[in-house]
Amino acid sequence: MESERRKDPLSNRPPVVVVGGFFSWPVHYRKMAAAIGELSGFPVHVVPLTPADWLAALFLGRTGQLVFEVATVIDKVLLDSPADRVILVGHSAGGIASRVCIGGTPPYGGRRYSGHRRVSHLITLGSPHLVGDSWPLGEIHRANELFPGALHENISYLSVAGAAVNGRESRRAARFYGRMTGDSDLPGDGIVPVQSALLPGSEHLVLNDLRHDQNGSHNWYGSDLATVARWWPAGLRGSRASGSPATAKGPA
Known about the structure:
17% strand; 7-stranded parallel β-sheet; Rossmann fold
């Protein structure tokens, strides 16, 4: 029985941990979490980050504390699970925080993170992986230097990018794209251009009709079950197919 579990890690119903984006609340990911739970049959937890956490990271340099919160939730959910690794889903800047939490040899913010031992998959949604080093993007640039690309061979990486808004059609999008890449005439999700959202070495998926977040009536990465099903990996749907119950939980 133990050998079968090693061959099929999904048999242990690995927890899914969702890390929200800059200036977001956990409640913003309730529909996404429910959809992931329905598709996979796995328990889903949303890291309880708030706008105050992101502002402290941006203006007070407390990025390390924010990443520590992600690591704490991972440790907590694994204590209550038969699985030994989680599936990590990061939206926007939450994808960058997830990569830092996965970590590696270099320390970050005074701590050395080893999440790569406790994470099996990293799925990022509209995350600005590739940016310049000017404020307020300097911390992302630094994270890329410390933990470049799809760094760990034992983790499956998937980068999802929306491409609903071209910079030439939106002044707001053009400002964001230009700040990140120096070029505003690009496709993207309205905040992050496609070329920034695709982490080198990861599997890439571009969805032409998705925008960055849920402001307005347009589709974004977590709009509903049908939208999440477009990017949730087929290989992580075994539990649903076998009739296991789906569970979506709020902040861990």
